[in-house]
Amino acid sequence: MKKFILLLIICAGAREVYAQRCLDINILSLTGHLQAPGDAASCYNECATTMNDHGQKVISNYGTRDTQLDELIKQKMQEFTNASVPGMGSASGPNAAQVQDYKAMAAKMQEMTPDERKAYAMQMAQQMQNNRPTGQMENPAAARIVGTNQTNVMQLKQLGDEFAAKLRTLNGQEKTERDALKTPDYSKCPGVDKTGMPACGCVNGLDGKYWQQIVAIENKYNSQKTALLQSYLPRYKTLIGTIEDNIAKVHYGDDLKTANYKKMLFSQQSSTFAAAFDIPAIVINDIRRTGADAYVNKVNSDAGVYNLSCSHQK
Fold first, then answer.
1. Which runs of consecutive H residues, i.e. helices, occur in 181-251?
2. Is the dihedral of CA 302, 179, 38, 32 positive or negative?
3. Contact of 42 with 93, CB cutoff 8 Å
4. Which of 195, 229, 259, 295 has minimal Cβ neighbours within 10 Å of its Cβ?
5. How far is Cα 223 from Cα 72, in angstroms, rounded to an integer?
């Protein structure tokens, strides 16, 4: 019963068609934040690190560029969310009085019998049908621009799918190569204390060689991922520029007459932003973080503090 009441409240809240104007942003210029990282050592050097109780370097964040990219994506996606939900980002959404009306409606329905609720639901459905705009036609020239733009957005999505497929291939090859790498054989290290634990210098030396090999693998595949990213970004930017030019031609939706076309244009803009930063940001973060994570282990191994299972001597 509660689900039925909630559904009806939602339907009642949708009696007025809500159409959001596009955001006043330039997605093409924001893609300037999609900067490919360097090798593992440079990725590590960009990081902020702390020292733990064992004297190990610990990455606390992956650097300013990493943080700025994450914050940009989070901020813009929140702006799109706020703009698309009535009452969160637009004055055209429900106001406080309307919210109270919906609550009163819910209370009223709770006091009704099942037959009364059914009759009331039918009445609300009829009102919604009567309130739908009729006979409103979209400007043909503006409609053509929105239709063309939809094709461009689909092409951008297909480009992302193609990019992601090639990345999956590289990631699979990288994992296979890492998995094939033999872990250190600590049995070759001499024991130095009563329990026979191996010497830290020997153990960490073996760990250092292992992590140097991991760093080499990361650099090998991350350079290929970077080259792939740099080959796709110009194609991304061409489509993004075309889509944004079309959005500007209809003045971010102001030239559109119908709610459906306004919503379609807004959806095109939000989809374009998501596509622009989805796969490219994932690969950039992957390069930066896997490279830094591998390199900090080499740093700790070289400092003789990576492996804590041995007998540490002061």
1. 200-249
2. negative
3. no
4. 195
5. 25
